[in-house]
Each structure stands twice: as structure tokens, then as C-alpha cells.
Amino acid sequence: MKTYYYNILTMLAIVLCGLSLTSCGDNDDLNTDQYGNEVALNVFGPCPVLRGGTLHFLGSNLDQISEIDIPGADPITQIEVIKAGRESEITIQVPAEKCAPGIITLKTAKGGVIETKTPITYREDISVSKVFIGTENNLTGNVGEILTIKGDYLNLLHGIIFADKDTVREDEFIAHDRYTIQVAIPAEAKSGKFILTDLAETPTELESEDAITINLPTTSNVSNVTPKAGQTITITGVSLNQIAAVKLNGAELTADDLTISEDGKSLSFVVPATATDGEITLITKSGVSIPAGEIETVVPTDLSVSPTPIKNGATITISGKDLDLVTGIQFPNTESSAPATVNATTVTAVVPVKAQEGDITLSLANGKTVTVAYTLVKPTVTSFTPETLMAGNKVMIKGTDLDLVASVTFPGETPVTASEEDTKITATAIGTVIPTAAVGSGCTLNLKNGTTVSVTGLTIIASTTPAVNNAQTKGTIGKYVTVAGKNFFNVESVYIGTTKINKYKSKTGESMEFLVPETLTPGTYDFIMVDHDGNQNIVGQFIAVSAEIDITACCVNQSSISTPFEFPVSLTWDDTGRFRIQNNVTPTLKTMNLTAGKSKLIFYKTASGQLQLNDANWGTYQTVEDWNNEKTIIEFVLTQNMIDWITGAQNDGWSNTAFIVQGNGCNITKVTVLP
């Protein structure tokens, strides 16, 4: 047998266990170190000590001890220093043999000698002579069979630890005396060596030399290897009452989920919905995994759909077997969702408007999926009225299931889609205006699910009506703008709202470049082209915008107004980060045509903080705060008072300053004026 001793925490704890620490002298202190190394021994113990056990020494500077001699034994130099210094502790292992009672001698590395005043004494050795299960010489058995341990002083031991599991205490022993321990092997026991313990606070523990083998459960049959969720699987075998849990791929069953026969020959459980294909693993109470066989879970089969084809928005029925396993349904081009109804033979769901043709995917709780193909109803066109017409005119398209259509695209140099405003759609008809840029034959129906249907039977003659390529044209007031389109040779005049365009730089059949009149005010207008017959054609919208004038060059240092200010700048409330806007620097603010309540002073920024605008006499107009950095532009609408400072009608008497700008951390990159 091998003897192990664990964690002697304190000598007092050992006293409580019936052992003792022994003083080495009458004064509880002895120093016979002739070299003056201040090595002292106070106590040692336990005493009596078990042969092969651990002996502790407490004192001062005992880490200097290099050898300990016990009567009858060879010198001991394997010394473990638990604690060094003036309050020190060392331990040794007492030899299992060749040791006798008597005085212990401790020696330092420099020749110092310390002897104990009291002798070491020994406990009687606990011995184990024989271990067997059931009959002698047998080390293999089952849970519940009797393990017999023979030896001497076994009455000093009060528990057995089977392979790192909970201790079986002596009140569960079948027999227990000086010479014998008998115990039923617990279900939690593992094969291997076991440990005998006295259960003391600092226990004496003896590990068996021989390992025992505990027979594991065995399986002979799985009743259903192709189960459906909710069905019962029964496993037959031997010792199945040792099973504490069952693992499946995707699910785990605890003891409460298992039904085990009293004789341990059968184990049953209901297959969870989340279980999928794979191994059945039985977990014993001792934690051992035992494979029991593989299963392949049922999925729905014999699938069919009705009606077929089906229209988006209608309810589809999927028929088959085992459809009550379905938890989700997904149509092509849509997200998975829950079915409307589910039972063993049918699943129903509304076909989403966005669903496309293809395979419907049915998903199960265990992650498996099955698919079934389906087809969709497509819109059909039966007639066009008229069948031939010029672009720009109305057409009536009749047919069936046209309410599946989202829009209609007509051919041209570039395919062009009829505007939503000009298009009305019902299940049997579509009325729309063919865009003036269209030309060719046929059209394309753009369905709500993202697919298209090409249709023939329509002829579109190119329009002579002027048209532009973009529904909105944007131009800067006082600057030239280029407009692209078609049939511009038929244009006699162009209007933005009621303002006629008078100055052209160029004009062809597909392009014109003209000056946006300066008399326009910013805004959105009808864009009108008048043909040679005087017909007005609204070809789109024209957005007139004012041109911003960059006045960053007009910004000078606060402390040196002859020095241009460098951007970007992080504003401050002192001269290190504030600047003046001068009215006499090119571009000259004084000469700008500014209007109170309309013109703007604009600051572009990239950081959070404050911006304060002052006049040249430090009068504050406004302080703008943007601590969350939500703005990239700060605009000030100019008042008449502000314009007076720009024009010089008001001044500070010594400079040409229109405004002073200061603040806190607001990072300014550019300053402009919008007249």
C-alpha cells in the first residue's frame, strides 16, 4: 500500500484529531546551534506519527536544516520547507520501515545540531492485505456488488473514495472492524484505484495498490433507429440503472426524462423535437460515456402543393407525411416565418407578395429542412388599346392578374419606366402614359416580387415632343446649365416657371446649354418647353439654386488683421482661435447684392462645440451650440443690421470688420455667403 498525507493546515487542527505536537524542551525553545545561526526548534509532531506519514517541525530559521536523523533510519535530507524565516516550518516523510522510537536530531548545513527533548513515537501501521469483489482474487464486478478489504487497523479508517467521486462513509459500510471493510460498490464509482481515508480535518489517506474494474452498462438493441420527434425509444441491455443521462445530437436528457426498469435491462425516453441524426450516448452516474447506436430522425415526405400555380397573396397548402414536425416555412426571396396552420398531413401559409417561384423550404426544430417546388401565377396581357401609338400618349393594357404588376417599362434608347403618378393598376387593366423617350415594340411588366414578364403586341412610335432625360434638372442662378434629352429641334422656347430663357450657349436635338436667369429666386419650378406650334410641354422640374461665394479669403487674424487666417481652425474665446471677417478683401462683401431675410452667411464645420457671431463692436448676434456634432453646416440668415456692417453703413471707427467669430472647439473649415 502507498500512504498519502494531505494539507496539515495547523498543529492545533491535528490536536483536534487526537494527535499532538510535542515540545522539544522544558522551555518550549532549544537552540544548540554552536555556530550561532539562531536556528531554534519549538515543537514537532504529530506524535505518535504513522510510519510513512508526514512529520512537521516548527521553530525559527528551520529552512537552514539540511539533515534530520530518526533512530533506526537512514539520514533524511529530503526536507520540504513550508515556511522560512523566524517563524518557520519544515516537513519530512517518516520512513515506512527501519524507524524506531527515540530522540530526533536536526542538523544545519554549517554543522549546528538540535536534539528534541521528547522522543518520537509511532502509531500502529494500517495495513491492507487483500482486496476483492465478491469472491477472493476477483477484482472485477458490478455496481452494487460487495467490495471486501482485508488488513489491520482498518477500524481507524472511516470512508472510501472511489475514483474522485463523493466519499462513501462508514455508516454505509456493510461490515467494518479492525480487520475488514465491506461496502457495496456505488453507482458513481469508476474503475481504478480507490482511497481509504480516516476523514480527519487533515486526513490520512491510503490509496489501494490494486485497481478494481467496475463493469459498465452494455446495450443490445435500440427499438427505433428512425424515430420521429415525440416517439419513444427503448434501449435494452444490462446495468442500465447506472445511466444518469442520455445525449443526442441536438438534445440532452436528464434522469427525470428517463424511464429505467428496476432490473436495469431497459431504458426508455421520448425523442425531443430538437434531436437530430447521430449517436445516442448513455452517460453513467460515474460520468462514463457509452455509445448505444445511431438514429436518423424522420422528416416530412411525399410532399405536394396546391393550388398550382398559385398567385402571390393566396393561401398555399402543402400536403404530405409527418408535416407536424414543421416549425418554419420560407419562400424564395423572402425570410422564414411560421406557417399559418400545421398538422400531421398539411401545412398552410400565405404566399408573400415578394415570393418568387422555386422551392419552398420547410424547417424543423432540429435544424433539418425539406423542400418542395411550386409555381406562381403570372400576369397575362390580352390587348393594348391602341396597339400602335406615339410615345407620350396614353395606353390601356388589359389582361388577367395584372395586380401583380408594380410598374411598366417601355423600350427606347434606354428603357424607360412609366411614372407612378401616370399609372393606374387593377387586376384586369393597367392605364398609363408612355414616356416620351420610349420607342420600339412590346413592354416589360415589373412584378412586385422582383421578377419581370415580357409582353408583345404594342408598337411605340418615337415622339416628336421634347423630353429631357432626368425628371429634375438643377441649375445655379446666374450660371450656365446643360440639359440632355431629345427632340430639342422642335423647341421654340424654354421657360423655368414663367421666366423665359434668353441666353443659350449651344443647342442641338439632344442637348442645350443656357444661362439660368439671375432674376430667378431659389426654388423648384415647372420646366417647360414650347414647340413651334405653341404647345407647352412640362418636361420635368427645374431646381434653381443660388451660388455660394467662398469668403474664406476675407477672414483675418484677430490680433493682426493684416494677416489672412489659416483654416481649419478650432474656435476659442481668446485671440488664439478667433478671427475677423473683413468687408474690403476680395471677394469684396461690400459689392455683393445681399437681401435681408434671404441671403445667408454659412460656416462649414467638422467638430462639436460653440460658434458665436459678433459685430465689429463685439455685439453678439447668436451663439450656436452643437455639442453632439450633429451639424456640418451652420447658417446665419442676414438681417439688415448685419448687411449694414457688411456694406460699411455701420463700422467700429477703425477697421473694415464686418463680423468677429469666436467660440469653443467648433472646428471651422470654410466660410461662404449665399446672396
Topology:
Layout: E1 2-5, H1 11-16, E2 22-23, E3 40-45, E4 49-50, E5 54-60, E6 65-69, E7 80-83, E8 88-93, E9 105-108, E10 113-115, E11 122-123, E12 127-133, E13 140-141, E14 146-152, E15 159-162, E16 167-169, E17 175-176, E18 180-184, E19 194-197, E20 204-207, E21 213-214, E22 218-222, E23 232-238, E24 243-248, E25 251-253, E26 259-260, E27 266-270, E28 278-284, E29 289-295, E30 301-306, E31 315-321, E32 326-330, E33 341-342, E34 346-350, E35 358-364, E36 369-374, E37 380-385, E38 388-390, E39 394-400, E40 405-410, E41 416-417, E42 424-425, E43 429-433, E44 440-447, E45 452-461, E46 467-468, E47 472-476, E48 480-486, E49 491-496, E50 499-500, E51 504-507, E52 511-515, E53 523-531, E54 536-545, E55 549-550, E56 555-557, E57 569-570, E58 579-582, E59 600-605, E60 609-614, E61 620-626, E62 633-637, H2 640-647, E63 657-664, E64 667-674
Parallel strand pairs: 4-11, 13-21, 38-45, 47-54
Antiparallel strand pairs: 1-20, 2-3, 3-5, 5-8, 6-9, 7-8, 9-10, 12-14, 14-18, 15-16, 15-19, 17-18, 19-20, 22-23, 23-27, 24-25, 24-28, 26-27, 28-29, 30-31, 31-34, 32-35, 33-34, 35-36, 37-39, 39-43, 40-41, 40-44, 42-43, 44-45, 46-48, 48-52, 49-50, 49-53, 51-52, 53-54, 55-64, 56-58, 57-64, 58-63, ...
Write up this protein:
Residues 1-36 have low confidence and may be disordered. The longest helix has 8 residues, at 640-647. It is built from 2 helices and 64 strands. The relative contact order is 0.05. The N and C termini lie far apart (104 Å). The protein is mainly β and 675 residues long. It is flat and about 130 Å long. The strands form 16 sheets. A 5-stranded antiparallel beta sheet has the order 1-20-19-15-16, with no helix packed on it.
